[in-house]
Amino acid sequence: MRDLTSEVVELIRFTSTNLSADVQQTLERARDREEKGSAAQSALITILDNVELSRQNSTPICQDTGTPIFYVHHPEGWSTRKLREQIRNAVVEATKKSYLRPNAVDSLTEKNSGNNLGDDAFPTIHFEEVEGDELTVELMLKGGGCENVGAQYSLPNTQLGAGRDLAGVRKVVLDAVQKAQGQGCAPGILGVAIGGDRGSSYYASKEVLFRPMEDENANPELAKLEQRLTDESNQLGIGPMGFGGKTTVLATKMTGRHRLPASFFVSVSYMCWAHRHRKLIVRGEEVRYE
Ligand code: SF4
User: Fold this and answer.
1) Cα torsion through 83, 86, 88, 90, rounded to 10
2) Per-domain boundaries in the chain
3) From CA 148, how far away is CA 244, in angstroms rounded?
4) Average pLDDT over residues 230-238
5) Ligand 1 pocket, 240 CB below 6 A?
6) Residues 6+ apart with CB under 8 A from 35
7) CB pairs under 8 A, 24+ apart, for 110-119?
8) Which of 148, 186, 205, 286 could form a disulfide linkage to 193, CB 3.0–4.6 angstroms apart?
């Protein structure tokens, strides 16, 4: 089996230092929309300058390089045990090269491992076998500040008057944005999962953040709600970094999961403006990065 350690190190470097074009363009449009000379526009200008500098110097876009979350889609015949080992070795190497900050802290002893390896779930690695002969490794670096303002709701929620329907979903998502108040480094991107259990719901709310910024949900009802939630979040006046302004949320991505009749969870994963996600694609000898 091919050793992908160095390709994964490059994937980590690329993800940590080079913001994808779709996120950058959304930030640029937001900068142009904000009032000239406002604190909101200045914050977006600084963010975009920083994005460009990081790309030029191959240095992390943010000092918090986040939790590395890998999604591996592999053809039949690949050993997930060996792939896990290669990814973990790549994480150690990328930490040595300062593409990642040492971020794995033992919650009981408070000791930082120093190399971004913790228990089996740090870094997080999901595997799925797929048809065909192409292997893809997707990586998301999920910052701690934005992870802290994620939220999960169990509907109905009487306090918010949110029932078990899309109107109720809308209320709780807006509540999460309101409570975040620009913490978690707004403008953010909302990943929302409706249904599942508590674990699978949060998982899905992160996975949906891999969708391109500009795509439209295949479900017309969710497509409408995504747009509405982005628009309504931007009317809250929270703005970039909480400075006020027109841009609190850059995009909303939603997905649905089956659930038990007794439960109706809505999970909101809030992703900060530093939405670092990239993909490594391997097919035979061909290797490319997106
Ligand atoms: S929330 Fe995002 S932008 Fe803010 S400090 Fe964390 S990683 Fe950086």
Assistant:
1) -140
2) 5-15+61-143+276-289, 145-271
3) 21
4) 97
5) no
6) 41, 245, 246
7) 115/91, 116/68, 116/91, 116/92, 117/88, 117/91, 117/92
8) 205
Tokens standing for residue 173: 């998502």
Residue-wise pLDDT for 12-47, tens only, equals: 999 999 999 999 999 999 999 999 999 999 999 999
CA of 273 to the centre of ligand 1 (A): 8
Atom of ligand 1 nearest to the CA of 147: 1
Among residues 122, 139, 259, 120, the alpha carbon closest in space to that of 206 is found at 139
Mean pLDDT of the 119-123 span: 91
Give the three-state DSSP class for 65.
coil
Predicted TM-score (pTM) of the model is: 0.95
pLDDT for the residue 51: 98
Question: Per-residue pLDDT for 1 more than 90?
Answer: no
Structure tokens that stand for 228 in this block: 């509405």
170 has pLDDT over 90: yes
CA 141 to ligand 1: nearest atom: 7
User: Is the minimum distance from the CB of 61 to ligand 1 under 6 angstroms?
Assistant: no
Tell me if residue 25 falls in helix, strand or coil.
helix
Query: What amino acid occupies position 141?
Result: L
Task: Give the domain 5-15+61-143+276-289 fold.
Answer: Dihydrodipicolinate Reductase; domain 2 (3.30.360)
